[in-house]
Amino acid sequence: MSYKRVVITEFGGPEVLKMIEDTQLPGPKSGEVRVKVLVTSAAFTDVMIRKGKYPDVKEKPPFSPGYDMVGVVDKLGEGVTRLKVGQCVADLTITGAYSEYLCLPESRLTPVPEGLDPAEAVSLVLSYVTAYQMLHRVAKVKRGQRILVHGAGGAVGTAMLQLGKLLDLDMYGTASKSKHELIKQLGATPIDYKSENFVELIHTLTGDGVNAVFDPIGGDNFKRSFRTLRRGGKLVAYGFYNAVL
Ligand SMILES: NC(=O)c1ccc[n+]([C@@H]2O[C@H](COP(=O)([O-])OP(=O)(O)OC[C@H]3O[C@@H](n4cnc5c(N)ncnc54)[C@H](OP(=O)(O)O)[C@@H]3O)[C@@H](O)[C@H]2O)c1
User: Fold this and answer.
1) For residue 2, what are the CA distances in angstroms to 69, 94, 100, 188, 245?
2) Cβ pair 73, 99 in contact under 8 A
3) CB atoms < 10 A from the CB of 17, how many?
4) What is the DSSP string of the chain?
5) What is the percentage of the chain residues whose pLDDT exceeds 70?
6) What are the beta bridge partners of residue 76?
7) Residue 223 CA to chain centroid, in angstroms?
8) 243 contacts: CB under 8 Å, gap ≥ 6
9) Ligand 1 test: best mutation among 122, 130, 149, 156, most atoms within 8 Å of CB?
10) Cα–Cα–Cα angle for 173, 241, 61, nearest 5°?
């Protein structure tokens, strides 16, 4: 049976993404399962990989991108005992998920509870885990503290705001004007990074700055973010958006 997958033919813009058809389904090796992919995402990290600017991916094209996925176990390899055919699973694949089928070690896969929408579940794998780790394990924010989130209207940014609301954080988020209504609905004060000086505005609005700032923009933005902090605050730098575009 044939199956389709997307490959990057060379590093570059969206035009390097091509759909190909492989003539034979991959077979799971010992300890692996074959997964029929239901959903994957198109995150900014996939853009970095497509452009060859993601430090952790050393593969050279052609290869299939796709950082995360939720799918259904379709075939078991020898020795697989934990998972069953038909079970819903998730994985942070890093590459490979832009495919109808792929084989993965059983040990990597996380069972997805029944009844969840696969498209909602896949948002947890990369974007929400990143947001959760930064809030709770890196910055260790405490209930009621104040944070600034850059790219607040994006995938990780909106996850940060939703998780921050659960902690009653006082939140500020930079984004383009068109996303300001969304940011307000998520409980934060929007700042237009294109027309406003976020360093000055944070100090005007808060008095003494924020407890933590989360910055995926990079370059000069890190220095400016540092200046929004109150004494003892934390700058969490987790990307270099500007250097990729
Ligand atoms: N370290 C990690 O583990 C990790 C994991 C996941 C993602 N990341 C990084 O996190 C970043 C966001 O990823 P994502 O998937 O959430 O991307 P995304 O959905 O594309 O969101 C990025 C957002 O940033 C906004 N933006 C662009 N330039 C900005 C600036 N100068 N100031 C403020 N906002 C700006 C964008 O749009 P608007 O202009 O429309 O508001 C967009 O909403 C990327 O740099 C990615 O590499 C890191």
Assistant:
1) 20, 24, 10, 48, 36
2) no
3) 17
4) --EEEEEESSSSSGGGEEEEEESSPPPP-TTEEEEEEEEE---HHHHHHHTT--TT----SSB---S-EEEEEEEEPTT--S--TT-EEEE--SS--SBSEEEEEGGG-EEPPTT--HHHHHHIIIIIHHHHIIIIIIS---TT-EEEETTTTSHHHHHHHHHHHHTT-EEEEEE-GGGHHHHHHTTEEEEETTTS-HHHHHHHHHSS-EEEEEE-S-THHHHHHHTTEEEEEEEEE---HHHH-
5) 100
6) 33
7) 24
8) 53, 218, 219
9) 156
10) 145
Q: Ligand 1 within 6 A of 179 CB?
A: yes
What is the atom index within ligand 1 of the atom nearest the CA of 175? 41
86, amino acid identity: G
pLDDT at 245: 81
pLDDT (0 to 100) of residue 123:
97
Output the CA 60–ligand 1 centroid distance in Å.
Answer: 25
User: What is the chain's alpha carbon radius of gyration, rounded to the nearest angstrom?
Assistant: 20
Q: How far is the CA of 216 from the centre of ligand 1 (A)?
A: 6
Cα 43 to ligand 1 centroid, rounded to whole Å? 9
Those residues of the chain that have pLDDT short of 70 are: none
Q: Which domains, ranges and CATH numbers included, belong to the chain? A: 3-115 (3.90.180.10), 122-244 (3.40.50.720)
Q: How far is the CA of 109 from the centre of ligand 1 (A)?
A: 27
